[in-house]
Automatic annotation (TrEMBL):
Protein name according to UniProt: TonB-dependent receptor
Lineage, uppermost ranks: Bacteria, Pseudomonadati, Pseudomonadota, Alphaproteobacteria, Maricaulales
Chief place where the protein resides: membrane
Family: Belongs to the TonB-dependent receptor family.
Coiled coil ranges: none
PROSITE patterns per record: TONB_DEPENDENT_REC_3
Any matching Pfam family: Plug
Amino acid sequence: MTIRRKVISSAVLLASVSWLPVTAAAAAQEAGASETRDVVTVTARRREESLQDVPVSVTAYSGAQLEAIGAQDITRIAQTTPNVTLEVSRGTNSTLTAFIRGIGQQDPVAGFEAGVGIYIDDVYLNRPQAAVLDIFDVERIEVLRGPQGTLYGRNTVGGAVKYVTRRLSDEPSFSARMNVGSYDQFDVIVSGSAPLSDAFRVGGAVANLTRSGFGTNLTTGQDNYNKRVLAGRISAEFEPDDRIFIRAVYDRIEDTSNPRGGHRLIPSLLTGAPVLDNVFDTRGGLDVVDQKIEGQGVSLSGDIQINDQWTFRSITAWREDSSTTPIDFDSLPGADLDVPALYDNEQFSQEFQLVYSGDRLNGIIGAYYLDAEASTVFDVLLATTGDVLGLPGLNAQTFGNVETETWSVFADFTYDLTPEWSVSLGARYTSDKRASRVLRRTYIGGFSEFFGGSPTLVAVTSDFDGSDSWTDFSPRISVSYQPDAANNFYASFSQGFKGGSFDPRGQTTAAAAAGIDEFEFMRFNPETVNAYEAGWKFTQGGYRHALAFFYNDYTDVQVPGSIGVDTTGDGVFDTFTGVTTNAGAATLWGIEYEGFLGLAEDAFTSGDTLDLNWAIGYLNGEYDEFIDAFGVDISDQAVIQNTPEWMASGTLNYTVPLSNGALSVINTLAYRGSYSQFEIPNPTLDQDGYTLWNASVVWNSNDGRWQAGVHGRNLTDERYKVSGYNFINADGTPNLGLEGTLTAFYGDPRTVTATIAFRY
């Protein structure tokens, strides 16, 4: 595949401008920001609209808001967005797990696609590696809940998260921010831009983010849960007049943080090692490779206004990332279940849009193309198992390569039938083609050549090379009724689609032994959702809310998993096979209630303000059918993973004038109900409900040049699990390895950060 060559040929995207609500603390930073306490504008439908007018469930955060609360990366917004899960994936520092309304995917291996689309400046990230985006130089983040296929690139069956960077200023600009905090946190973020002519400007931003570990690897002595990230972005914009805007962007990230080791939840079954007291400590001994993640991308944007009604846009992008990740599943010094892994991803995408804006008709026509390649290779060193079997250094290696070529055409238009009534119609036709190579080999003698070893080949357990293609037509319709400026009632129906693929961990010899067709054993089909939503948006005075009820009929749900395999019949699992099924069907319904109450200025003393934001999400989800790897319907046991029944948050912001500026005190309580890490609950691994308390004290100068703040996160020092591994059978015996792998990874402990920023 020649993805790199394709990037040379096209012109990219328009980065659209919108103003979002800012906290009172940030009001001094942006001209005219005081007006935005009442007016919120987003581009959820690829055009600028008031949030009040958009018949879509969308939550928007401005860059100023995120700075005011000390948000460090994209996972922070999930605390205050209903029915949304954004977490750092198990055993990694920068791979993202995303779920919206119970729909998503947590397996990062090549061949498994996301259920939530992540976008940087409208460029779709095809893989979850390097997708835990650090927040710097950001204009806004929008979270769109429900299928978005008639408007966005790919795999938005659950929803979409849009990360939009700042446009360059017409005037010379410079900003610098320094963060110093707990666990030796030291961050430096610098950005700037300059016009080289009336029509051309350049700019860039760089962030160096460091922190010591929350715990220690007691075997290697390394920090555990530390952070070393260097990220940067350079851009150039050409705008000869108000009809043409062109933007070129290059971004890069390097993450050299230590491997993230898990916390064992049970004593080891072979050596009897006890559970550690500190959940951030680990004992993993896997050190055959160092962890390193690199990602980079190039995009070029074009926005040409043809006439008063039509605008042409082009979004072209190339991205690649590579990850070296040693994962010690058993979290012990010995090699019971040690998995060093390499991920390499590359993608080229092209999108064209024709945007129409008229008196009564508004909409978009578009075409999207993606050519992507994802490769994964990992060793599974089962040394303790090999010793029992007389196979020293037993290694079950997996190599998987997946090529994706997809194209689609889409359209979405809104017509105002009357001043009060409007109807929106949209549709997307998608053609997906997937080619997969899966090579699995069993070695003795330790790690493979990918990780510095030279073992002896024992057997080839999979040598699969296949391809398949799928097509889909996904419609959308919504009706909106706005009897007055304060109210907007809407109802919508939409379909979502996520493409099929092949299990990158499948073992074809296991399929042959069971008398199952090899191709059918490896392949899994697309999943779809029929989504119904009704909502009411209200804005009047200092109060606004968005209330939504949704009902999702979710079918052919893709559920990946791995099970141990006994190839010799001696009762010992000496290898494993991936078993991915279209498990069946699920019903997901719930309610979301977001609101804002801003008391008028001078409510207390001159210039004081008090704002309250809240979000409540309820989700009731259950499987109507769940067929496991053995063909048995276990829907009475399965649950919707990574999605609590209840989520709620409240943020109170009190601002008072102080010393030629404004001082804000911001308090947030975020509650997340109990949830299961996987479809089959495990009471030891699953997380009970918990509440996080975050607080910030921020001062902004009246001229917008200076900001100083102190940010406390998780002030009650809660211990809560965000992911984990489970290779334990129902009777407590190991599913793979001999020590028993039941490990968890945790959210950040209590931290305090002081920050100072200067802008010019």
